[in-house]
Amino acid sequence: MLPPSLIRTVAAQELKWLKQHARNDALALNDLVRRRANGEPLQYILGTQPFGPLNLLVRPPVLIPRPETEHWAIHLSSLISPTLKRPLSLLDLGTGSGCIPLLLCHDWPKGSLRAHGIDISPDAVRLASDNALRCGTPTPTDPEAHDANTFQAVLASYLTSAFLDVIEPPFDIITSNPPYIPLHEYQTLPDSVKKYEDRGALFGGRDGLDFYRAIARLVSHKGVLSDDGLVVLEVGHDQADAVSRILVDTGNAFKIDIWLDPWGKRRTVVARKEAN
């Protein structure tokens, strides 16, 4: 529970943003305040959420990008330096708003990244496509795609490998912030999350690990991941060891690293495939 002084500070800042939003879009401030008082996330009311250097559109029920995700995506961006002569291909599983691949498309040199994002939600695919347009990131078939980083959002499920008929592997990087909240934790989430954000983007099965098992099956397919490919997965606060074991059990020669989030939680499992 936040101390009263901090609660007042946060409330005052939120009111300031709501007033600005009301002025900019000729909206009734009372309606915005009522929505917030009813528990609707501030990001949905404002319609945008900063993510690194980007200011992305957000719409219910698509998952709102979190600071934890922003932190590791920026770190990933800083560690890799693709070039026009040595471009990379990236697959983002459960892309949601498209925040992860779009940040990398923004940060990395033009023409150095070919990114795809898949999601089972039509709402997410529409939002990710709208964000790509907002960020000026073309699709691979766009006339402006020459010497540009590209991103395409595709409606598909990664619980099976059928989508690989549409998106051509191998991929140098596979990223995901999959649903990872286990049943016992999902039941305790605040209403502002359960009532507004897509359950399918949050609930990871009874133990929270269902989607990591699906990702492990996917990377086990021959030719999906390049010989020295990288898998970068956001995980729940106590899931890093379990997810690491799931990846190692695929039989791939993975070198595992774990990144901490800004609050010291073991938040991101990074698996580098070691070439034979």
TrEMBL record:
GO CC annotation, single: mitochondrion
Keywords linked to the UniProt accession:
Methyltransferase, S-adenosyl-L-methionine, Transferase
Record InterPro entries: HemK-like (IPR004556), N5-glutamine_MTase (IPR050320), PrmC_N (IPR040758), SAM-dependent_MTases_sf (IPR029063)
Cite the Release factor glutamine methyltransferase N-terminal domain residue spans from the record. 25-47
* Gene3D superfamilies tied to this protein: DNA helicase RuvA subunit, C-terminal domain, Vaccinia Virus protein VP39
Coiled-coil residue windows: none
NCBIfam families listed in its UniProt record: hemK_fam (TIGR00536)
Xref: PANTHER family:
HEMK METHYLTRANSFERASE (PTHR18895), MTRF1L RELEASE FACTOR GLUTAMINE METHYLTRANSFERASE (PTHR18895:SF74)
- What is the protein named? Release factor glutamine methyltransferase N-terminal domain-containing protein
Q: Which organism is it from?
A: Pleurotus ostreatus (Oyster mushroom)
| Taxonomy of the source species | Eukaryota, Fungi, Dikarya, Basidiomycota, Agaricomycotina
